[in-house]
Write a structure and sequence with these properties.
The protein is α/β, with parallel strands linked by helices and 204 residues long. Helix content is 43%, strand content 22%. It has 7 helices and 6 strands.
Length: 204
């Protein structure tokens, strides 16, 4: 089974231009869990949060992640200023689900020969209905993407799930790359899946 841990950075409202959803995909993830667990123990913090760490710490974590090969990293970054649909801009739940589906389509195209379990931070304010994301993705996967395995969405507490914390790190690094044009950590992570939405107008 492939597990896809996701978290976000930024917001889908009027504040800021970009919004990012980071994904950490793995069938195991034990080695990465241990990396984050050791980091938290060494720095006496309960949770690894991207926004609360120094550049040197983020660089060190990114380096360690790329030394482990049992996972892939992906993201979708949304340029909110280029979304033409008023309905899509005003419905944050729909916008989250719709843009995230572009990333999941890429992941399924490469790693979709197995059941998939998507794990979302339960503090995620963008997904107002705990059923809507799973229902939306299953419709897209079965009706449009040719996916034939089981796909489930579950919610977990990022305070206790180290791999959701890694997804937060990915999302924060992506937002930093597009918002502030700081690419160092992003380039170290080398995401396998990179979706910019809307693609034709993104960043222009």
């Amino acid at each position: 089974m492939l597990k896809v841990f996701i978290d976000e950075s930024g917001n889908l409202g009027s504040q800021g231009r970009y919004f990012a959803i980071g994904a950490f995909c793995t069938s195991d993830g034990k080695r990465v869990r241990n990396i984050i667990k050791r980091h938290c123990a060494a720095h006496n913090v309960p949770e690894f949060k991207n926004r609360n760490t120094t550049f040197l710490i983020r660089q060190n974590i990114a380096h360690k992640l790329k030394q482990v090969t049992d996972h892939t990293i992906g993201y979708v970054c949304v340029d909110k200023t280029k979304i033409q649909s008023l309905q899509l801009r005003s419905d944050h739940n729909l916008l989250f689900n719709y843009t995230f589906s572009y990333l999941m389509k890429e992941i399924i195209a490469t790693e979709g020969g197995q059941d998939i379990n998507i794990l979302v931070d339960n503090r995620n304010q963008k997904v107002m209905s705990t059923n809507s994301l799973g229902d939306y993705l299953r419709i897209k996967a079965y009706a449009e993407w040719g996916f034939t395995h089981d796909l489930q969405v579950h919610y977990c507490d990022s305070k206790t799930d180290r791999l959701v914390q890694v997804a937060d790190f990915v999302a924060g690094s992506v937002l930093e790359r597009y918002k502030n044009r700081k690419k160092h950590i992003y380039n170290m992570l080398k995401p396998e899946y990179a979706v910019r939405f809307p693609n034709a107008q993104f960043g222009a």
